[in-house]
Write the C-alpha cells for this entry.
Amino acid sequence: MSQTKKQSLIESIINVSIGFFITILSLNIIFPILGIESNSKKNIVLTFYFTLLSIIRNYIIRRFFNKKNRTN
C-alpha cells in the first residue's frame, strides 16, 4: 500500500523535525570543538535551512518510490 501525498509530507516533517532538534544540540557541541565561532541565532538559521532542504528531499524521494511501487 502506498502513501498519500499528505502522509508522505507528514512523515517527512516529523522525521526532519526530530533531526532539527538533534542538530541544534549537536552544533552547540561540535562547533566549539572544531574552533568554529558561532552563536545560537546562526545555529538556528543554519539548521532551519538544512531542515527545509531535508523535508523537500525526503518528500520527493518518498513520492518517487511510491510512484515506482504503483507501476510494478
User: Anything to note?
Assistant: The two ends are 12 Å apart (CA to CA). The mean pLDDT is 85.
